[in-house]
Design brief:
Layout: H1 2-13, H2 24-33, H3 38-46, E1 55-59, E2 62-66, H4 68-74, H5 78-86, E3 94-99, E4 104-109, H6 120-128, E5 138-140, E6 143-146, H7 148-155, H8 158-166, E7 175-177, E8 180-185, H9 187-194, H10 197-205, H11 219-226, H12 230-238, H13 252-258, H14 262-274, H15 277-280, H16 285-292, H17 300-304, E9 305-308, E10 311-314, E11 317-320, E12 323-324, E13 331-336, H18 339-353, H19 362-375, E14 389-399, H20 405-413, H21 423-461, H22 469-500, H23 504-509, H24 511-532, H25 534-539, H26 541-562, H27 566-578, H28 583-601, H29 608-621, H30 626-630, H31 632-636, H32 643-678, H33 680-703, H34 708-717, E15 722-728, H35 748-769, H36 771-776, H37 782-814
Antiparallel strand pairs: 1-2, 3-4, 4-5, 5-6, 7-8, 9-14, 10-11, 12-14, 13-15, 14-15
Helix pairs in contact: 2-3, 3-5, 4-5, 7-8, 7-9, 8-10, 9-10, 9-11, 10-12, 11-12, 12-14, 20-33, 21-22, 21-26, 21-33, 22-24, 22-33, 24-26, 27-32, 27-33, 28-29, 28-32, 29-32, 33-34, 35-37
Length: 815
């Protein structure tokens, strides 16, 4: 359909003088411009028409000055192209046009006409007739400029780019841009600016060079960011585009953040995961926090946690740790020196094995042994009833993340809950929890003690055990007061810590902070009232009510502290998450309930409070008394009988609320609980990150206290250490423990022989598939046969060369 439309346009818009030209060249023009029938063109060429004559034609808005060959290529007529080449058409015949905003004179050979539509088969056909693919084949204003590889990249045809690279095209040739001749671009730059991600992928796989970072990073990356080409940004970063080179605030990563596009930032994080470690090693804490705080950019954790090998010497052999015991689930975590430390140690051990004097201090040995006890426990022991599993070891390129409140703040904010699926987040939180555990367990113990003390005070206030009242009241009050004082000091230190990090506003707006402030105030008020006048608290209803609410809040505090322990937190959190999910349901139920309450209260049988309690019992508890609803006392006094309206309300509300609505509530709770149970690991790590955040902000508050001993303690603990973890490999890869460089298990002869057999079978299948066509052509396609023959010859040559190499290797081993 496309070719027919093109032919129609050519017929209408071509050079009109061709219709009056009686020469052979004129006849050839009319044949091509017309229907372009093979027999007609063949007859004209056999009559000695010039296959290289010049003709003008117009395709769409573009006007061209070319030859019959260039027109046949553009019209995608391979049979006519072959016919023209047989009659000695010049494969290098040129066509021209006006291009770009400045109207430069564009000239190029016929093979260029295949690029715009991505016609690889036509390009291969022209190559068979020795069309040139190398160099600057396209000229602007008679100046050689554009390569075919650049042109194919411009139009976004990845298959053409791949083919031209196979033909030794140079992807790094700079080309003057047709819209502005003062600008030069490479194939990678133009494809990145236009968003041709598949072309970018092919060019990067061919080692195309990314330009050096200048202001705001490499030009390719800036163009991709400006065009919001998400996949291109990922590919460029993965391919080595340096985000972190340059001056502060003028780096590529700064340009990325200025775009304020979460999708682009997440794509860059994904690209950093696959790039070289040297690039990621330049990231600083500020940049990491920006990535971590971006939704869907959780893969930044995989980027900064890099897999590595820990090697050591054993019996004068190099050995790497490949297996380990995992006593705490699927992850061992540890803090230790950077990876370079262990590389240096390995080289020192290698020097010692070679007899070269080297220094290994006892202090270093002690620190490393403590590190290995955490990362690879029992590594030299054989434990009964448990076995080692294949592992992968990863280390963090940034130090001290597990003790940095800013990192913990981002994790605890929950802006991206999928971050907790990353092993790096597990390691950071588990290491932070290792330091937090004792303090949190102490808080839990004291909270439980305070709740039990208030329960004991309630016993004494109600004189259940009056003989204990004289000697038990004051010890209970003193212990509860000391625990309250500790909680108040901790809250003040936490407030100071958040102030240091500029998060004071967020701290005060947090619901947890408001709940803690309310609990501390209420507990302090109750204890003060009990200390000042125990007897008044026991007798006055308002003080007893405050005391009762305080006891309730204390038990809620115990429940909250239980969320940090794995044995209780993981089962509890889905339950607690299911409760807020019922809020929309109760909005619906409230209107339904208010309607029935309004109806019943309008009967005038009871007061509004009594009416509401009766409706509550009927709607939510299915507990009712028909006589109570009818108010038999009023009926006995001769008032109007509301029996049938009351019965209607009873039946309607009982069916709609007690049966239907309450069962829907059960379904809502079950669905919400099921979602919470599926993501219980995320919920638990989110809650634990909040707890460790509180711990380290309290320590930050201590750091800014005037007490010198506290400062020394904090400075000692704040020593920069890197996070390491060892996790179990995927069971599907357990059979791949051997090194990928083990050449002894590779049989080259078998692989070459198998390749030859596959090529021969492919040749036979293609001949069978096209048998009908081959019979019509009176034999197999000579071009296809020649290609397959050349391929098989190449394989045979490869096998001969490999035989020579292997024979030399065998001779060297024997010697």
């Amino acid at each position: 359909m496309y070719s027919n439309n093109v032919v129609a346009l050519v017929r209408e818009q071509s050079d009109l003088s061709a219709s009056d030209d009686p020469s052979l060249d004129g006849r050839l023009r009319r044949c091509l411009i017309g229907r372009g029938l093979y027999q007609e063109v063949k007859q004209v060429l056999e009559d000695k028409a010039d296959p290289n004559c010049q003709l003008k034609y117009k395709l769409g808005p573009k006007e061209f000055d070319g030859t019959p060959l260039t027109l046949a290529v553009k019209l995608d007529k391979p049979n006519i192209v072959r016919l023209l080449m047989i009659h000695r058409a010049d494969a290098q015949s040129v066509y021209s046009m006006k291009a770009g905003r400045t109207g430069v004179l564009w000239k190029g050979p016929a093979v260029c006409a295949t690029v715009a539509k991505g016609n690889l088969s036509m390009m291969r056909l022209l190559v068979e007739y020795e069309a040139n693919l190398q160099g600057r084949v396209i000229s602007f204003n008679d100046e050689p400029n554009v390569t075919l590889l650049y042109d194919a990249s411009y139009f976004g045809h990845a298959h053409l780019v791949r083919y031209l690279l196979q033909q030794r095209g140079n992807p790094d040739t700079p080309v003057k841009f047709q819209d502005d001749m003062s600008i030069t671009k490479t194939a990678l730059q133009v494809s990145a600016s236009l968003g041709h991600d598949e072309v970018v992928r092919v060019l990067l796989s061919a080692k195309a060079q990314i330009s050096h970072a200048v202001d705001f990073g490499p030009q390719e990356l800036k163009d991709a960011i400006d065009g919001c080409h998400v996949e291109v940004v990922r590919l460029l970063v993965e391919g080595g585009a340096d985000l972190f080179a340059g001056e502060e605030e003028r780096r590529g990563v700064d340009y990325l953040f200025q775009a304020n596009n979460a999708v682009l930032t997440a794509a860059a994080a994904k690209g950093l995961r696959g790039c070289d470690e040297d690039v990621v090693a330049c990231i600083d804490l500020k940049d990491f926090l920006r990535f971590l705080a971006t939704p869907d950019a959780e893969e930044i954790l995989s980027a900064i946690f890099r897999k590595c090998e820990l090697r050591y010497w054993k019996n004068e052999k190099r050995v790497a740790w490949k297996t380990a015991y995992l006593p705490h689930g699927d992850l061992n975590v540890a803090v230790g020196p950077p990876k370079g430390h262990f590389d240096d140690k390995f080289h020192k051990e290698m020097e010692l094995a070679a007899g070269v004097r080297s220094s290994l201090t006892d202090r270093d040995h002690e620190l490393e042994e403590e590190f290995f006890k955490q990362l690879l426990p029992y590594r030299f022991q054989r434990l009964e009833y448990t076995t080692q599993v294949p592992i992968e070891i990863s280390h963090c390129v940034l130090p001290g993340l597990h003790r940095n409140p800013e990192v913990l703040w981002v994790l605890a904010s929950g802006v991206n809950d999928r971050v907790f699926d990353e092993k790096g987040a597990h390691a950071i939180i588990n290491l932070a929890w290792r330091e937090t555990y004792r303090g949190h367990f102490l808080s839990f113990t004291l909270d439980l003690l305070v709740a039990c003390l208030f329960w004991s005070l309630a016993f004494l206030m109600n004189k259940e055990y009056y003989w204990l009242e004289e000697w038990m009241i004051w010890p209970c009050l003193i212990v509860a007061a000391l625990a309250w004082l500790r909680n108040a000091v901790i809250e003040i230190l936490q407030c100071l810590g958040f102030y240091v990090y500029g998060k004071l506003r967020d701290y005060f707006l947090s619901l947890d902070t408001l709940a803690d402030a309310f609990r501390i105030f209420l507990t302090g008020f109750s204890l003060a009232a009990l200390v000042i006048d125990w007897k008044a608290c026991a007798e006055r209803q308002d003080l007893r009510l405050v005391f009762a609410i305080t006891g309730f809040v204390c038990w809620l505090r115990v429940l909250n502290t239980l969320k940090g322990f794995e044995s209780t937190g993981k089962p509890m959190l889905p339950i607690l998450q299911a409760i807020p999910a019922t809020v929309p349901f109760f909005f619906v139920v409230f209107c339904w309930f208010a309607g029935f309450l309004h109806m019943y209260y309008s009967f005038g049988l009871m007061s509004w409070w009594s009416s509401m309690m009766i409706m509550w019992r009927l709607g939510f508890l299915a507990d009712f008394s028909r006589n109570e609803m009818r108010n038999v006392t009023i009926l006995s006094q001769g008032e109007a009988d509301w029996t049938w309206p009351v019965d209607i309300v009873l039946v309607a509300m009982g069916v709609s609320m007690s049966i239907i609505m309450m069962n829907i509530l059960i379904g809502v709770l079950a669905e919400s609980y099921n979602r919470g149970w599926e993501h219980r690991e995320r919920l638990f790590l989110l809650e634990r990150s909040r707890l460790v955040l509180q711990h380290f902000t309290i320590y930050t508050g201590w750091k800014h206290c005037p007490c010198a001993c506290v400062k020394r303690r904090i400075q000692c603990e704040a020593n920069s250490q890197h996070v390491w973890f060892a996790n179990a490999k995927d069971p599907s890869t357990w059979g791949e423990i051997q090194s990928q460089y083990d050449a002894d298990v590779m049989n080259v002869h078998e692989k070459i022989t198998e390749l030859r057999r596959e090529i021969r079978e492919m040749h036979e299948k293609m001949l069978e598939k096209h048998q009908d066509r081959a019979e019509a052509l009176q034999g197999p396609d000579p071009i296809m046969s020649r290609r397959l023959g050349n391929l098989e010859s190449c394989v045979q040559g490869m096998q001969a060369k490999m035989d020579v190499v292997l024979s030399k290797l065998g001779g060297s081993r024997g010697s």
